[in-house]
Design brief:
It is a single chain. By secondary structure, the chain is mainly α. The protein has one domain. 51% of the residues lie in helices and 0% in strands. The longest helix is centred in the middle third of the chain and has 14 residues. This is Carrier domain-containing protein.
């Protein structure tokens, strides 16, 4: 059906420069939870200012790109991450 959950976390962490363990520990259930966790983690890392943190829509678009095996219309903020996995 899709990627395994660990693969999603690994790619997201790599893309946004976040520690994978940080995302795993936050235990997101839905896509929206993961988006919120990414934004929260990036905001907490502001002591090392990036050019400009990504917007919510940029984070969501990136997640859709990472989870490539699902048509975009199937992935909604309330979609459970486990449902996107093999």
């Amino acid at each position: 059906m899709g990627m395994d959950l660990l693969e999603i976390y690994m790619e997201v962490a790599d893309h946004f420069g976040i520690e994978e363990e940080t995302l795993v520990q936050q235990d997101a259930v839905t896509v929206q939870n993961l988006v919120n966790n990414i934004l929260t983690t990036l905001a907490a890392q502001q002591s090392q200012p990036p050019a400009e943190p990504p917007s919510r829509s940029e984070v969501q678009a990136t997640l859709l790109t990472i989870i490539t095996r699902h048509p975009e219309s199937e992935i909604l903020p309330g979609t459970r991450l486990i449902d996107l996995c093999d």
